[in-house]
Prior knowledge:
Distance between the termini: 63 Å
Enzyme class: ligase
Radius of gyration: 34 Å
Largest sheet: 7 strands, mixed
Strand content: 15-25%
Mean pLDDT: 92
Domain Aminoacyl-tRNA synthetase class Ia: 417-606
Family: Belongs to the class-I aminoacyl-tRNA synthetase family.
Keywords: Aminoacyl-tRNA synthetase, ATP-binding, Cytoplasm, Ligase, Nucleotide-binding, Protein biosynthesis
Number of helices: 27
Oligomer: single chain
Organism: Geodia barretti (Barrett's horny sponge)
Low-confidence stretches: none
Amino acid sequence: MSYDHRDMQAKWSDRWEDGGIYAVADDDPRPKWYELHMYPYPSGDLHVGHWFAMTGADVHARYMRMKGYNVLHPMGFDAFGLNAENAAIKNGVHPHTWTMSNIENMRRQLRSMGPMYDWEREVVTCIPDYYKWNQWFFLQLYKNGLAYRADAPVNWCPSCQTVLANEQVINGFCERCDTAVAHKDMEQWFFKITDYADELLDHSKMDWPDRINTMQTNWIGRSKGVEVDFDISEYGLDEQAIRTFTTRIDTVFGVTFIVLAPEHPLVDKLTTSEHRDEVTAYVEQARLQTEIERLSTEKEKTGVFTGAFAVNKLNGERVPILVADYVLLSYGTGMVMGVPAHDERDFIFATKNGLPIRVVIAPPAWDGSKLDEAYIAPGTQVNSGQFDGIPNSEGLERIADFIEANGWGERSVNYRMRDWLISRQRYWGTPIPVVYCEKCGETPVPESDLPVLLPEDAEFLPTGDSPLALHEGFVNATCPDCGSPAKRETDTMDTFVDSSWYFLRYASPKFEDGPFDPNALEQWGAVDQYTGGVEHAVMHLLYARFFVKALRDLGYVEFDEPFVRLVNQGTIVFNHQKMSKSRGNVIAPDAYVSDVGADVVRTYMMFMGPWEAGGEWNDDGINGMARWTNRVWDLANRDAGVLDESDTHPDAVRGLRRLMHQTIRKVTEDVERFKFNTGIAAMMEFSNVLAIDSSAWNESIRNLALMMSPVTPFLAEEIWERVGGPFSVHQQPWPTWDPDLAADETITLVVQVNGRLRDRIEVPADISEDDAKTRALESDRVAAHTEGKQVRRVIYVPGRLVNVVAT
């Protein structure tokens, strides 16, 4: 018998809302548990990929509530940014209108899923009540030297018409539209995330996946080495030397050329007149290439001579200065020393350009002959002045000491990560609260004047300059210091600023005197369980960690990390491709919810595969889940007269109760670990037995309803009411199991002869070692393989196997 899921969903949605069962109180005496899933972009409707991710988080949060915690599991919308703005432009609608309309529809879709969200705690980042505090945070960072403006070469997406942070460039392409990224010089605003580089490398206070920790570690890219100067004083510049960073200072005597990045400010100053045309053309061509193109191992290494030289202070040698596109200004000092004998890239470059190749680290038994390839293994210092004859491992330290003693450089640590570029030349974002006055210069907007409102009547089509620059009512302002006319900053903030602290706002989303109520935040603290996609490893997750550490140091929070535990969901595949709006292969859940109900859709998504791996969407699978939920419904509606337990055989009751306790144990362990698919499989197996064995039915069906409730909230509530449970099933404690009752009465022992499998035997679970050995030797199959042999030894591994050693 199938149930009417539409009536059931409407009935319980109203009851839950009227009863306020998902309202979260800050003063609840139960221990707190803050469980959060990454909020969505409202650039369009939700698809089943969103539901897959959100349902897993909801299932776990419901489970933790039934385990006795006061659970905060809120929802909001990451409403600013390119995603929403590009969608609005594509559809010819103002971004605010488009975004708020999508949010309303997404709310409807989310409600139909039956989640345990307290909608009174909703956060929407594009409303002034929220982005006012983005601006307030900016001012706090600015006052403390953690926000600054600088002229810098930036990543430019010609399609999105805006600057991208390094983290938003994936293999040389824009992470939003897959357009090749170019470079240009612009004045930009930055947050000093590099001040926290070392602390961000420490993941010891968090329970995060190893791959996320590794991705962040690699992105930060900490390298220990030496910064060393090369003399360019002969050119009469303000700069008397150029400095490079190297992790191989033991090879410094082997430098035969210096290479500058095309963007390096000294290129123009050092280039001689006879080489200027060639260098200028080369630099312009290099700036048209993406970083991935410039660094490609398949790309031929090119470079041009500037006409200038630098002096290696360690041996007095004058070496040529070249410009090459394989050197990036964004890494190190934007200059590298060419040591072709001991660097593969330099070896290829020097060979092609006829530059000297001098060996300074000798391979074992080296006879002084030319190298066929770069030698990068350990060896002995040669051609290295007073350091000849020592192992290069010792040379690393002694040469560094020598350089520091002479004031030619110093040991240092270098990072691949650069400061967080937050400027965006787009409309749909938080205005940066700064004005520019001819008298006072760069001036922050007073906190009392916040928020600086985003004008609703601005032209929002991208032009390459900020659309706000064209809005006179916005641009023209008054200097807060001297009262003179001033111009507003017209860039907006990166949307990742919004998501770097939104989890703090959920503690008190209606608080007006600050970004959060300190007392409420003290109650909820850091997020205990965070879930979301692995693609945010070096953007959102890194930025949020920086924000919390900066706020801690400024005295606004008392914890060190935003998210204590992190679990990443997998991806939903459809037609052998990851489901995404950009690929046009998304599946809307609405029709499925209408046809089979939210519970079936939730169950199918949690059953299709391990939640951390994802799975492939298939309509046949969802139909199978519909059949199972209907079978459970049939079980709950059995004729009570058939369910008289008084005449039931004790062995049958004991067997069903044992399976029930085993199922509770299995589902508990699996939901704890986000292994929803195997937990559902255990419930299916239990319901199959329950369907043919009515013994202990009432206890079993009640426990089944409790176990199903996180996955099938509507159906479980209806079954719970039908069997006489008090409202609501979602306010009941999670069922417990008795280890003694869950123990198997029999176990299967593997029997081996000389280590090879020969039999499997069923024995009592509490069998003794002697009895286990005797039963193994009595096996006909064991006898067949030991006939004519002498049994030398019988090895017993309790509860697992018996191995007979015979010769």
